[in-house]
Amino acid sequence: MASQGDGVAKVLSGTEVAKEIRLGLADDVAKMAKVLPDYKPGLAIVQVGGREDSNVYIRMKLKAAEEIGISATRHQFPRTITEAELLMKLKKLNDDPSIHGIIVQMPLDCDNKIDSHLITDSVSPDKDVDGLNTINEGRVAVGDMGGFLPCTPNGCIELIKRSGTPMQGAQAVVLGRSKIVGTPASELLKWNNATVTVCHSRTKNLEKVTAQADILVVAIGQPEMVKGSWVKPGAVVIDCGINAIPDPTKKTGQRLVGDVAYDEAKLVASYITPVPGGVGPMTVAMLMKNTVLSAQRAFDKLISCKWNLRHLPLKLQSPIPSDIAIARAQEPKDIMQLAQEIGLFPGEVEQYGSKKAKINISVVDRLKHSKNGKYVVVAGITPTPLGEGKSTTTIGLSQALSVHKGKNAFACVRQPSQGPTFGIKGGAAGGGYSQVIPMEEFNLHLTGDIHAVTAANNLLAAQIDARMFHEATQSDTDLFDRLVAKIGGVKKFSEIQLRRLQRLGINKTEPDSLSPEEKKRFVRLDINPETITWPRVLDTNDRYLREVTIGQSPTEKGKTRKTGFMISVASEIMAILALAQSMDDMIERLAKIVIGYDNNGNPVTADDLGVTGALAILLKDAIHPTLMQTLEGSPVLVHTGPFANIAHGCSSIVADSVALKLVGPEGYVITEAGFGSDIGMEKFMNIKCRTSGHVPNAMVLVTTVRALKMHGGGPPVVPGIPLKPEYTKENLELVKKGVCNLQKHISNGLKHGVPVIVAINRFKEDTDAELNLIKEMSESSGAFRAVICSHFATGGPGALQLADAVIEACNKPSSFKLLYQSSLSLREKLNVVAKEMFGAGEVVCSPLVEQRLKDYEAQGYGNLPICMAKTSLSLSGDANVKGAPTGFTLAINNVTLSAGAGFVVLYCGQITFLPGLSTRPSFFDMKYDTATGEIHGLF
């Protein structure tokens, strides 16, 4: 502070104080960047029109931001912008997680009528660094300083503090009651324990009131209104005014003065702010301080990652009601509330109603510097046809970890196909008191991802036959002229066509420059119909579409061929969606899809057919996982659902990646793999983890008494038929004989270097003796822990011991390893999986398979992992063989290439790609209540 001599007030230099504040803020920004490289506070300055005085202020703010290390961007909109358009622009800024502060430069210089109060209130309170949103103003009014303090008033308080004059007990007078300065300044003085009087233009005996002030804040907007006689001797005078008055001695013909007659007041006051150079620079400094504060709050959330999860209490009943009755009795939280609780920003969440939402994969990029959480995969032993509760365990464990252990925990599960939902198996939302809700929505259309896969798959199928038809019915010239369209009267190759030319080695970009031979090579895909492997799909069990003849209409001119349908979730596009790590990655994979071969034996791809871009458009929303919740209000990501006995059977890499970032390094992601360790877990490890680079910390292996009794020689378990007495009464001998299957699955997990925790899913018929026998034999067979679980009956509390075991296992260093290296031949990989995972003694491939494996390697696909398509009901290729067979011969009768997904599929025995409806499907019991809108009979 500079003194002007004895008997003259000391100058409170806002310029000097602001400089000091900026240096401190720059240090704060640098400290954050040390922890999170490239992390910068983001400030958006919104301007309408181009007033020169506004430009001056904006340049000051941009300069200050640059000095501090704030990334400030100017968003200047034309005078013609409408109120609706400006509100939409502000919403985008509100939703942008890289923006920590938003200011709207006033006044709005616009042609259209715009409510400035509405505009300032439309800035999110969490980003309102000007402190002008009514919510932040209201906080100040009631003494809540947890929001953003208005910049000019806060600058005034800072200058008063720098004077050393105590505010507590002081008589303070604020001259002016404006929303921006006067009123909030009075509130801040009050909460600093001053006794405050607010004056305005209608205050009587104004000069007498101000003369009583120990602290005088002037924001009246009248040049030099406050005279020296109005000031109490020794008072602190804060002048917020800035007014231009005529001054012929200046080049501009005017000079700036405050609302206080400075030359008079400085002879009476003890401290006084100059104009300019007083409150003005402090306003900018406080704006920067609020921006850094906002960035620090976001930074702290990134570092701590601790959720503020509000759980939903369970209403346990005995006997346990039906799954749908339990689900319907629990009112889910609003999905935006859950999203906020787990650290998501509004712009990262796209609502589908109030109970589910798509989460944008941009979350992964926002949190790229954050460490991943612990990664736990849930698989099962070889199941009965009824399933053993793998999804239920996934949900119950996540409830135990998040709600009852206070850990950040996500469950990542597959989206169920509607085929089984309306068939016999039922849904996959879990069961009992460990479910995803709303379970009706979970098991039906959800957010339409499977429909998007169906549409994309069938568009590609349609293009295959359409292209063959057009090539068969047109000359080279006609094909070329139709394929290379005129744009603006000029022929031009599209981007995807230029890629095809490059693959053909034709380095030309002008259509007319191609020779007749080059044109022929370009337009003729020359697909061999006998080699086409791309089917059509639908999400319905319809056995009569397994094999069909297409092209029967006269308009197809006899171009018939045999093809067939698969269930939608068996489509390679579903596998691509599950393995893609970004939109760009997905597009690259779609382009690589091989649908068959030409007559020279060369692969024909989706990119050759020109359909890649269209497929990506159909899948642009499907790549984002869906956020739902458990019965206890903890988060679940639902995404993709490739069949495990046909494809790789795991939820998506994208969902796991999003969850691993959101839970933070001390959190847990419980992700599901299909069926047993022999197919689901093996593919999770060697396909999914190989692709994603994620390292699992532990494996949870779900087993049941009834499954082990089946493997010990019990009678067949048939859906729809009551269990035989062997399964409803204690039988230790059957359990002991069947434990060999469990032991094999434990061994399979250990071969990948991860601790195996056995979750013994308790059913009401099970006895303590049976359960304890399994526990003892599991741990003696190498399991890290074996835990008896009752989460079906009690929710999260029934999986607390399982949660403890998972936490303990995940605290140990990971020794994860892949089962085989990519450099092995496809045949060698097949041998490793068959012998190590299944227990086979020999692998026999048909001559066709042997030849195709050699062809794939010659075509450059030999480095791909393999995906075994086999029954889930046996470790062998024969569903009737139970227990843990060894030394058997595994016959491989077919092989296909999923070049886009990035694996080679080998088929053991008869695999059903499209299930059929049973005599009495589940839908016999379903109905829709038009009076209540409820669905009845869905489980």
UniProtKB/TrEMBL annotation:
InterPro entries: Aminoacid_DH-like_N_sf, Formate_THF_ligase, Formate_THF_ligase_CS, NAD(P)-bd_dom_sf, P-loop_NTPase, THF_DH/CycHdrlase, THF_DH/CycHdrlase_cat_dom, THF_DH/CycHdrlase_CS
MF terms (GO), sorted A to Z: ATP binding; formate-tetrahydrofolate ligase activity; methenyltetrahydrofolate cyclohydrolase activity; methylenetetrahydrofolate dehydrogenase (NADP+) activity
Keyword Oxidoreductase applies: yes
Domain Tetrahydrofolate dehydrogenase/cyclohydrolase catalytic: 12-130
Pathway entry: One-carbon metabolism; tetrahydrofolate interconversion
Entry keyword set: ATP-binding, Hydrolase, Ligase, Multifunctional enzyme, NADP, Nucleotide-binding, One-carbon metabolism, Oxidoreductase
Pfam families found in the cross-reference section: FTHFS, THF_DHG_CYH, THF_DHG_CYH_C
EC number annotated for this UniProt entry: 1.5.1.5, 3.5.4.9, 6.3.4.3
Gene3D superfamilies for the chain: Domain 2, N(10)-formyltetrahydrofolate synthetase, Formyltetrahydrofolate synthetase, domain 3, Leucine Dehydrogenase, chain A, domain 1, NAD(P)-binding Rossmann-like Domain, P-loop containing nucleotide triphosphate hydrolases
GO biological process: tetrahydrofolate interconversion
Subunit structure as annotated in this protein's UniProt entry: Homodimer.
Family: In the C-terminal section; belongs to the formate--tetrahydrofolate ligase family.
The protein, known as: C-1-tetrahydrofolate synthase, cytoplasmic
Organism of origin: Thrips palmi
Gene name per UniProt: LOC117640232
